[in-house]
User: What shape does this take?
Amino acid sequence: MRETQAYQSAAPGAPLALVAIQRRDLRPDDVAVRVTHCGVCHTDLHALHAQDAGAFPVVPGHEFVGEVAAVGSEVTTYAVGDPVAVGNIVDSCGVCPMCELGQENFCVEYPTLTYGGRDTIDGTVTSGGYSAEYVVRERFVYRRPAGLDPAAVAPLMCAGITVWEPLRRWGVGEGTTVGVVGLGGLGHLAVKLAHALGAKVTVFTTSPRKADDARALGADDVVVSTDEQDMARVAGSLELVIDTVSAAHDLGPYLAAVAMDGTLCSVGHLGPVTVETLALLIGRKRLSSSGSGGRPATQELLDFCGEHGITADVEVLPSRQVATALDRLERNDVRYRFVLDLADIG
Assistant: This one.
């Protein structure tokens, strides 16, 4: 076994503590990654707030970057020292229809998550990227653009791919009209990516104070969603609206902004929603969702970001300040993503 340092919560309500954990010995197709930076996601908060004692101990972190520290005997894609990235999926069955389509995120057998998942070979529970080292199958390691700030690349592996998939699925390109609801960790990347793809981007926000930020990110228009006249101005004008708001809210106003045969894709709130059928009927509109991404799309995203110089806007903290990052994230006191620098435990 390979011993490494990691931030682990031992039980519901227990704070994260730096402890020694065991990583598996490298299998033939394994890559050991020296983790340099790991993003802090709302999913990490949910995991730490879970009340199920069976879900503990837990090491969070599912969007991280680093360098290859060692490789298994059959690894051919990577060599020691290569810059790499890992996202929130580290394995899948590989043979179901979804996996064969390159949509491992929808694996029929359920993908192995970066933490809290079940290893497909030995059944052990995975521990995440708030650690100095991670061991992962070669298929789920991605080439990281060397010219980009590694800390700012880390959130691309969760927030970035989550918004990239709908942008690609609905063919966003030159002249497309795209709306983005919310300007947080997911939303700010949706704006950057849609703009780089050539779309005309409209940002919906409840705060007029965010207008300058939205335009600096690449938005062409900003709509205050609490202003009925402002909302009426964009009614029926957007081919794709990506809703990144994580709390439950009324989708009706955003469906009204969707053009005929357009789509509202909700990627933030994953709970129950209520939609008036007429809101879909008039204009043949679609309500969809998407989560994470498959292997081909993830590498495509990283390559695209490398070509266009796109990264997340991040606030980097030493990993020993992880409690501060989580506390501030819970209060939405971040612009737009926290990233932990693991150098202080590496």
